[in-house]
Structures are given as C-alpha cells and as structure tokens.
C-alpha cells in the first residue's frame, strides 16, 4: 500500500508538471492583450507595418484584395503616420488606444489596441472589426 501511494504521488506530480508546461507554452505563444510601449509602434525612428489579416465584427475572416494585401502604414517617432493616407497619431498606453487624424481633416478615428509587440499590431474598430498588422 505504501509503495502504491508513493507511485500515485509521483504520477500526480508528473501530471502537474506537464500541465504547467502546457500552460506556459500556451501563454507565451499568445500576445493577445499584450500592449507594450509606444516605441514598439515606431521602433528606433519609424517602422512599416503590413496587413496580416482582417476580420469583421462577427470574427469572420475578410478576404484580402490585392490593394489591402499591399497596404502599408508607417508610424514615426514624431507622432506622424504615412501610407495610403498620412497624418498624426496619438497613442494612449493606459487606455490602449490609438487615434489617427488624417492630414487636412478635423475628425479622427480611434481604435482599441488589442496587441502591440515588436512585430505584431492588432487594431479593433468601434464595430468590433479587427485589423492585424505585422512588421514588414
């Protein structure tokens, strides 16, 4: 009886170790919700982002056209952005938002920043549609 109890403890400890390992691997592989500092947006002075994928408000993948596949946006450390449009941006780390104002326009668009790492940027619009960008 004593030997089987110690085998059971050893087996339980092994299972717990495996479960912890799986949890750590899963947690490290998912950047969702990770919003790092604004410098991740522009790198040392500016960084170019390209479309990775896009989903609609229901979470369904939006088919990319040639134009959207080739879309680039560059954020600079001086608070400007350029690409198919250009203007100024304001990043709010605490609120996890970015506000874009096109040149010559008085209105702006604000997006939730779901993920911001060195190589991944996910923006969520007011409708719930998501745009995932990757570093070029």
* Strand adjacency order, main sheet: 1-2-3-4-5-6-7-8
Q: What is the mean predicted local confidence, pLDDT? A: 82
Summed up, the domain count is 2
The number of helical segments is 3
Report how far apart the termini are: 62 Å
Largest sheet: 8 strands, antiparallel, barrel
What value does the Rg take, in angstroms? Answer: 21 Å
- CATH level 1 name of the largest domain: Mainly Beta
Q: How many β strands by DSSP?
A: 8
Runs in which pLDDT lies below 50 for 5 or more consecutive residues are: 5-29
Q: What's the shape? A: globular
**Helix content class:** 25-40%
Helix vs. strand class: alpha+beta
- The portion of residues forming beta strands comes to 35-45%
Q: Do you know the CATH topology of the largest domain? A: Lipocalin
- Could you say what the CATH architecture of the largest domain is? Beta Barrel
N-to-C SSE string, H for helix and E for strand: HHEHEEEEEEE
Tell me briefly what this model is.
This protein is of the alpha+beta class. Helix content is 26%, strand content 37%. It folds into 2 domains: 1-30; 39-135, Lipocalin (Beta Barrel).
